[in-house]
Amino acid sequence: MARRFLASGLALLLAIAGSAQAQQRERIGFESRQKGKPVQVTAEIHWPAQAGPVPAMVIHHGSGGIGRNREGRFAAEVVSLGVAAVVIDSFGPRGVTSTVVDQSAVLSVDYNLDALGALKALGGNSRIDRQRIGITGFSKGGTSALMAAHEKQVVAAGVPAGLRYALHVPFYPGCIAQFYRPRTTGAPIYMLLGGADSYVGVEPCQTYAAALLAEGARIEVKVFPGANHGFDGGAPYFNNMGENHSQCVFQEAADGSWRERKTGIMTVGPGGKPIDGAQSLAIGGCRTLGVSGGGNEAAAKQSMEDFKSYIRRHLLGG
Q1: pTM for the whole thing?
Q2: Which of 26, 147, 223, 276 is 20 to 30 A distant from 13 in Cα terms?
Q3: Tell me: domain 26-231+295-314, CATH 3.90.78.10, correct?
């Protein structure tokens, strides 16, 4: 009888614990776009134990999708600080598993829109402090974390006045699109790059960061010497069919036209009118095949400490 009582008591405790853990996660949805058509993108909120409203940190995955080793690990670190972690799933709702070999499976403009859609959704959540929402991301997600700092993009996405990300931490983003005299929202940007990154390159982001700084952006760039793409963790990898856009840089001119730097091909004419077929032609001329990366122990440890210090400073006031 005693054994049955203990067993049933243990089962009850486990059920309560499991229920409590389940209640600490919540799935939300928000509207975005997939190649011109509306799509409902989802995100999972990992709630801290603290009572709300609490700060939040959006986490946007890269071309390989959501992984426990990266997004799950970062979410756990964020929650440990008393901040809600919001992991966007940009692939599942679109029926995509990876964009490594085909980046057009989810266009960058749509991916960037996901980050701003998440901001709008969180801004209306009573458990979130709408003045203390940050964003981080890796590679393709790092690009969206950076682009979400551009005031022009935020306004175009329909984000209401007074709602802006309070912190941007892009990990090894691709700085393929560079606006003319780019104006940011004024929120701090911390760009973390690998010095040996051959997937997205290092120079394009350094060049663009200088342009952002010249226009008054609060931006800092940290380069980890000898670190590859994905330096924050994971085994070394190589995919000989992966699309490599490290040589592709599209720059906007004063007249609103866009030109790819390596090929010299104008893809958008003056006034912002796209030129038929020019985008594909330019990509074909600057893109190569073959991508690689992998973790760097020293860079992984330091970048995580840096990441948490940014959250403490800008979202927790510490």
Answers
A1: 0.92
A2: 26
A3: no
